Amino acid sequence: MPFDRLQPYNDLPLLPPSAELETKAVLKQAIAANRVLANLRGLAAQIPNQGVLINSIVLQEARLSSEIENIVTTNDELYRADADADGKTDPHTKEVLRYRQALNHGFRELRTRPLSTNLFIDIVRIIKEVDFGVRRVPGTALKNAQGEVIYTPPVSEAVIRDKLSNLEQFIHARDELDPLVKMAVMHYQFEAIHPFEDGNGRTGRILNLLYLVEQGLLDIPVLFLSRYIIAHKAAYYEGLRGVTEQQDWETWVLFMLRAVESTAQQTFDQVTRIRALMEQVREQVQQQAPGIYSKDLIEVIFRHPYTKIQFLVDANIAKRQTASSYLQTLAGLGFLRPSKQGREMYYINDALFAELVK
């Protein structure tokens, strides 16, 4: 039966695809992507405190992934809101922060359970802050900018759950497919099933990162796939449609492999620059302010571009008054910039901020 974009795609083929996935071009690109990803994993493992990666770099993936869904916030507002615990910020920024919360939840859960439909539901509930599950009612359709329906996902909770069960089996099957090729197939299938009323795109992009962790290709979920998707948005959606309408798996898989290679290299370069910056500041603080220097202090001011006195207190570096003195000293030496916003005093690491938003 030919594909009809106006009809629910209940005939979405089960996995694995019948088409050849590991063509010569795909295998060549997979080798390149795996090599760069391995380099990133090795570099990330050398960071003494990976909080700088999880707390700050991951926020950029959260921001960009949300931007794909037209949920936009500024870097300044995002990092300032993240430094606060009062939740006083705009709805878009809150939703971006929930993306990272959902990613971190999935990352923690992988220690005790595998990727599964129930975990998918956990993730989308955190992102949307709504207690919903698999779609039960029809009416969902994907439209382009002109309002035209370009895809109608499967309907009926039973059909959707069957296809999700098949996706789980594919994810965990002991086959010889390259894990990155498998990730590309998994991502298409999840987006095609479109199991939730909202939040499918962000949930699917989180699943990509969790899958890489589950497969041991990354130790922490730090990769900017959304940056590549934004830069190549037309090709991303054309690739998805190509599989749906023509079973063109090769073009789609190659797109995703290039996305991994490109973003892994960009993240590698960024982490390298941040490590070099941390080492430079560490040496300078040790020389210019030996009385306050500690490895823990440097790690705290690099864990987040917006530092507060409470951060030093929470890290057991100093009591409140002494912590304030430490931050003022660092500001006086030019390593931090004090900024009073409302009743809160922040000490901004402008050099770190500049690296994070490149």
TrEMBL record:
PROSITE patterns: FIDO. The keyword Ribonucleoprotein does not apply. GO terms for molecular function: ATP binding. Coiled coil: none annotated. Gene3D superfamilies: Fido-like domain. The keyword Lyase does not apply. Keywords: ATP-binding, Nucleotide-binding. The active site is at H194. Residues 115-258 form the Fido domain. ATP binds at E69, H194, D198, G199, N200, G201, R202, T203, G204, R205, Y236, Y237. It holds the Pfam family Fic. This is Addiction module protein. It comes from Malikia spinosa.
